[in-house]
Amino acid sequence: MRSQGTGPRLLVVAGGPRSTASSRHRLWHYRPFLEADGVRLTWIEYGGGRPGAPPLTALRHRARFLRRLLLESWGHDVVLVQKVLPPLALVRAWQRLGARVVYDFDDALHEHFSWGESAAVAASRKRRFDRMLAAADHVVAGSPPLAAYAREKARDVSILYPALERDRFADGQAEGDPEAPVVGWIGNRASQAYLGRIDAVLARVLADHPRARFLACTAPRPGLSPELDARTDFAPWSETAERDAVASFDVAVSPLGDEPWSRSRGGRVSVLLSLAGGVPVVASPGGGLEELDAAARADGIEGGLLFASNAGAWEAHLRRLLGSPAERERRGRAARALVESRLLADVQYPSFRRAVLGDAVSGGEGRRVSSGEHGPERPAGRAGGR
């Protein structure tokens, strides 16, 4: 798909459609701002590569994707590649024709995936990934841990966390019953395995709060212990269901595994979505959350994120939050303030524009999109929370 404009010609090679979280939060949320700046966009999406896809289906998707790249990827000032690894010869050809090549990633592609790929596949991907990092004119990493790895290979690296839409969270949270709190979790099929790490803790804490519930927004329904399953409400994932789920959360949880793949991943989108909704989050460390929290604390914003590295910490944080509506309210305000100061798309767009367009930018920081078009220019100050 192409958009009209008079500015730089930008080819976006997206790692997935809008329904893919990383593409949505790293690319799509910036699109209105690029178009408002007159950037001439060409957009090519990769439709394959999902875990569990039949090999023949994945092969067909790759062939179709490569064909589009070969036919439509020429004549641009900048090529932004998100997560996928195109042939290095194609990258070099873009550069020989004068294009700036920017590579964006938010997964630890140099690590062995946690869902059971072979060592040979992981090693092959790491070699291709390292070559892409070295070839790119600029690399955008989704977290400080990912940036640290990229700097070993790449000539120029910046960090951008996932971008959130201001309008989506403008109304804050719906009013709920403070004596019937909802503990929420958002994830995909692969991340359901991490729930097992806190299943017993959740069941134990909820047992002491008879009116509390656990809400899982995911697909399919996760396999939980009988004790936790009896206290669980299930919302099949969609963008709308995700938004509605966050609006009902009083506390959010985000467990991770201990393997490098999990700890290095970028963004932790489900955490950021909950923070944006004014919800305090108890999370495993990793994915740049500690650095994000430290930066917010330096600005005087603290309390929205609580970190738990063992069962005792998980239980202590959850009991404290479920036992105090006032504590949830205070931390919810801090959560929303963190997002408004650093993570909304209109706040991050100038940095995104500089990182991607580089010298193709002709002056200024880009036009701010007005409130009548895509949301208010400055944070409205509402903190959400209940």
Q: Could you please describe the fold and organization of this structure?
A:
The protein is an alpha/beta fold and 386 residues long. The protein has two domains: 9-165 and 345-374, 3-Layer(aba) Sandwich (Rossmann fold), CATH 3.40.50.2000; 167-341, 3-Layer(aba) Sandwich (Rossmann fold). Helix content is 41%, strand content 15%. The chain has 17 helices and twelve strands. It has helices at 21-26, 31-36, 55-72, 88-96, 119-135, 144-150, 192-195, 199-207, 226-229, 239-248, 260-264, 269-276, 289-298, 311-322, 325-342, 345-357, 371-374, and strands spanning 9-14, 40-45, 78-82, 100-105, 138-141, 157-159, 182-186, 213-218, 232-236, 251-254, 281-283, 305-307. The strands form two sheets. Strands 2-1-3-4-5-6 form a six-stranded parallel β-sheet, sandwiched between helices. A six-stranded parallel β-sheet has the order 9-8-7-10-11-12, sandwiched between helices. Helix 9 links the parallel strand 8 and strand 9. Helix 8 (199-207) runs parallel beside helix 14 and helix 12 crosses helix 15 (325-342). The longest helix is centred in the first third of the chain and has 18 residues, at 55-72. The protein is globular, with a radius of gyration of 21 Å. Mean pLDDT is 88; it is low at 362-386.
